[in-house]
Amino acid sequence: MKIASYNVENLFDMNNDGSEYEQYVPNTSWGWNEEMHRIKLQHTAQVICDIKADVIGLQEIESETALKELKAQLNRQGLYYPYYAFSRTKNGGAVSVALLSRYPIKTALSHPVSSNRAYRDILEVKIDIDGKLLRVYVNHWKSKSGPESMRIQSAKVLKKRIDTLDDDEPFVLLGDFNSHFEEYRTFVKSRRHNDTEGITGINHILKTIDDDENPISYTALKKDNDTLYNLWYELSEEKRWSHEFKGRGEGLDNIIISPALADGHGIDYVKGSFERFEAPYLFRKGKVYRWQQSRKYPKHHLGEGYSDHLPISAVFKVK
Q1: Burial tier of 94 (Cβ tally within 10 Å: 0-12, 13-18, 19+)
Q2: Where are the extended beta strands (E) located within 130-271?
Q3: What is the 3-state secondary structure (H, E, C) of 189-221?
């Protein structure tokens, strides 16, 4: 069973709900029209079809309508997901998180982080994998336009929830955390981001590092039920990124697993299976080929490109 995560970069529908980003209000000078919408659906579906995941968490989906349109497009392109979940933050911004699954969904819950529209709900989905239950948490934390304290707020809500689970209950945390997998090392000298005296959400709150600030290894995970393992460590260092900022790679998209996925019982992570999906068409001139908008006025959609993030995936097996 393959589980993936993909920030699709702004998949909007053609309804004018009043919450859209300016460039995605339908039928304005930006050119977000039926043609652009169709191309964006086709390109997004192409990537998801090529990943061939059984379960995929998605970020930056505008609405349940947009998700259903993507499901329909995937079906036309040969990949059918019978089950889905969508989390629409009540006071949230323009985009939300979702999940598509080939396996039955038993329950789906949204966990509010704040009434402030700067925060997105965390989506919790319980999936039935051949009679075994797996919880998947789809995240999209505050962007780097805000300080680390905002991402810590999401981390605390997530940590409080997973702490209620039994030690032997398997779960996967995935999504766009807007946090490098070693955020505690990369943000320390940033006055703009480090308003927490060096404490990070992804590393300190979720406990992907130990008390001495060493990364939790797969071996260490099996010995401590209060820690989590970030799968980026499965790759060579030069490939540990999914997003580029000013020419520098960042591992903002993460898949993080619980100790129960490494205990040899029920559902287990297949060690070494984590990968970054890097099909050649997702790159152009050596850079990630994001959805293209003109740089000259009047600015408009060009109907080219995919996303500013690369998908990531991992394989699990039922014992």
Answers
A1: middle
A2: 132-140, 171-176, 229-230, 243-245, 248-250, 253-257, 267-269
A3: CCCCCCCCCCCCHHHHHCCCECCCCCECCHHHH
* Per-residue model confidence as pLDDT tens digits over 171-218: 999 999 999 999 999 887 788 899 999 999 999 999 999 999 999 999
Dist CA 133 CA 103 (whole Å) = 10
> What domains lie within the chain, and their CATH numbers?
2-318 (3.60.10.10)
User: What tokens appear for 146 in the block?
Assistant: 């805000």
pTM, entire model: 0.97
Give the neighbor-by-neighbor strand order of the sheet with 105-111: 105-111, 122-129, 132-140, 171-176, 253-257, 229-230
**CA 306, CA 204: separation in Å to the nearest integer?**
33
The H-or-E segment that residue 34 falls in is: helix 34-51
**3-class state of residue 43 by DSSP:** helix
Kindly report the number of other CB atoms within 10 A of residue 43's CB atom.
21
